[in-house]
Amino acid sequence: MCGIIGVTGNGPVVPRLIDSLKRLEYRGYDSAGVAAVVDGAVERRRAQGKIRNLEAVLAEAPLKATVGIGHTRWATHGAPTTANAHPHKAGRVTLVHNGIIENFAELKAELAAEGHVFESQTDTEVIAHLLDAELNTGRSPLEAFKITLDRLTGAYALAVLIDGEDDLILGARRGSPLVVGWGEDEMYLGSDALAVGPFTQKISYLEEGDYVAVTRTGAQMFDVAGKPVERAVVQVSASSAMVEKGEYRHFMEKEIHEQPDSVQHTLSEYLDLVTGKAKTNAIDFAAVERIQIVACGTAFYAGQIGRYAFERLAGLPCDVEIASEFRYRSPAVSPKTLAVAVSQSGETADTLASLTWCKAQGLKTAAVVNVHSSSMAREAEVLWPTHAGPEIGVASTKAFTAQVAALLALAVAAGVARGRIDAAQEAELVKALFESPRLIAEALRMDASIRSVVQDLAKADDILFLGRGAMFPLAMEGALKLKEISYIHAEGYAAGELKHGPIALIDEETPTIALAPLDDVFEKTASNLQEVAARGGPVIMIAPENAPDPHGAGIRRIHAPDCHPLIAPLVYAVPMQLLAYYTAVQKGTDVDQPRNLAKSVTVE
Ligand code: M6R
Question: Residue 582: inside a domain, yes or no?
Fold first, then answer.
């Protein structure tokens, strides 16, 4: 997750860029840079490490300008060096980027064959080269920008300067957020409201696929099809950003929409898309004989999804247990067991006690936690961080997908270390994982189809969630989400378990929601749905559009993005969360602070 700021105004721009970047350091801080228009040409300054290093560079070589862009980086492609720091430059184009360009390797090969020379290992630099090539054909900046955007696969927020364009910043968003800030004879672009917070509280949130041309006096916005659009200008409070809701009604909604970024940020901790490899981490998986995951609530379901991956990809036996049970039942653990606590807060009393107990038994311990200064982060020998950022909504969303992303990436690393995954498979799995931010962004567009079913769901007293494989724990997580915020009773079941009991619950009033990605058990799930439909139960099947239709009256379909089976839990988490969210909104409950719950359960 990187931070972006752009300013086109009348006063000195560099101090303003620096002021903004300091507020954005929370998004990443392994390098930073600025670029500004100096006498018609764009110049840049970059530095490895924190913003103060960039300030030192600027003190040596100041930039006098009124138009500029800035970036603080969290490395995804290439090491955190000055050469890989943003802004990147090719010919007349200088730009900053947050996100992942999935097809950068193909584009880079194509551009290299045409004679383009690259100076960094980043995916970002290919965008600069593509845009420069389009400008060189004589196209206008906006035409060239649109053609360039259409060639990119992946997630991005961009801010672009062009030599010879003294009062123009181009911006675009897909998957990663970008806002336009409105000032007095001055305009801004930022990766969030906090970025432009020092200068203005008047903001337009760009929508998926939008691009924009910002000048001192205004902004021309276009949608994904290139049609001119206007986006509402909203007033945010001065401290808006991390701890405020911005354009969203609830923190939970905001956090659901932050997932392309938070998953990408987390994956980048464990994987390197440039090399197609899982990064080395502090655990020697070859020496581990068993994994014992302990967690509570949503984190427990994330752990269960992790188990499928550790066993399938690494052949590593993995147990997952609710921490409040584990800690009191004197479990028998073998010495070469790796104990892994999974927790958003890192403070959950039962999980912490289980971790401490494992450590006292002499086991190796690791903690997948989102709060990196928490008790679990300090207690475990190895910290495996998630990078979801602060999660305010009591119902966990982005922390869950970050936990899943971390565990899936670690399972790939374990598979490699244990000789179960060769280099080609590793590259395929790493690529699949890095597709998830884009596909999560696509899943967020299921919003309208999800809303079309919530009126019916909100009337139900009981709802069943079904799934097979890793979709089973996700079904339980979907049921937990719905229970927590809509107060509707819901249960998640393994679809194959239905006829062993729960099918007795089926009647016309009890909806069943099925998670059915097109994987090797799709047909089996589909036949379970026919069994439900045959008994008069209304069914909502969430599956890709190209999945075959299960025959049965009353089966409604909601189309989800088609994806690699490994990342299906990340992509299908989104419709689960949206279903719970909109059902709760329909029922008028307190979404962010549901009754009887606390964000962190630090007592037994
Ligand atoms: O902070 P933790 O991840 O350890 O919290 C565990 C559970 O309390 C938490 O996941 C809870 O179930 C959430 N409210 C779920 O949305």
Answer: yes
Supply 279's token pair: 């990064």
- State residue 240's pLDDT score: 44
Tell me the C-alpha distance between 319 and 310, whole Å: 10
What are the φ/ψ torsions at residue 258 (nearest 5 degrees)? -80, -5
pLDDT reported for residue 81: 85
Q: What is the mean pLDDT of residues 340-351?
A: 93
Domain holding 234, by residue range, is: 3-247
| 92 and 209 assigned to the same domain | yes
264 shares its domain with 347: yes
CATH number for the domain that contains residue 382: 3.40.50.10490
In whole angstroms, what is the distance from residue 554 CA to residue 508 CA? Answer: 10
**Active site annotation includes 2:** yes
How high is the pLDDT of residue 76? 64
CA distance 403 to 131: 36
Rounding to the nearest 10 degrees, give the CA dihedral for residues 188, 193, 195, 197: 80
Query: What's the pLDDT at 241?
Result: 45
- CA 99–ligand 1 middle distance (angstroms): 28
Residue 193 has pLDDT above 90, yes or no: no
Which residues are bridge partners to 73 per DSSP? 31
Residues in the chain, overall count: 604
Whether residues 382 and 409 share a domain: the answer is: yes
pLDDT at position 357: 96
Beta-sheet pairing, 489-494 with 462-467: parallel
Calculate how far, in angstroms, residue 224's C-alpha sits from the geometric centre of ligand 1: 37
**Residue 229 pLDDT level (bands cut at 50, 70, 90):** very high
Measured in degrees and rounded to the nearest 5, phi and psi for residue 443 equal -65, -30
- Same domain for 207 and 327: no
543 in the same domain as 478: yes
Q: What is the pLDDT of residues 431-449, one digit of tens each?
A: 999 999 999 999 999 999 9
The number of CA neighbours under 13 Å toward the Cβ of 177 is 27
* Cβ atoms of residues 580 and 478 within 8 Å: yes
**Does residue 599 have an active-site annotation?**
yes
Give the pLDDT confidence score for residue 198 in this predicted structure: 85
Is residue 348 within 6 Å of ligand 1 at its C-beta? yes
Instruction: Evaluate if residue 79 carries a pLDDT over 80.
Output: no
Is the pLDDT at 23 greater than 90? The verdict is: no
Whether the per-residue pLDDT at 238 is higher than 80: the answer is no
* Total count of domains within the chain: 3
Q: Are 533 and 539 in contact (CB under 8 A)?
A: yes
Alpha helices (runs of H) in 123-258, residue ranges in sequence order: 124-136, 141-150, 193-196, 251-257
Q: How far is the CA of 261 from the centre of ligand 1 (A)?
A: 21
pTM score: 0.80
CATH of the domain at 88: 3.60.20.10
Query: Quick check: CB of 296 below 6 Å from ligand 1?
Result: yes
User: Domain for residue 594, yes or no?
Assistant: no
Using left for φ > 0, alpha for ψ between -120 and 50, and beta otherwise, residue 102 falls in alpha
**C-alpha distance from residue 535 to each of 20, 299, 460, 511 (Å):** 59, 34, 17, 12
Give the C-alpha separation, 199 to 277, whole Å: 41
Nearest CA to ligand 1 atom 4: 343
Report yes or no: 317 and 291 within 8 Å, Cβ to Cβ.
yes
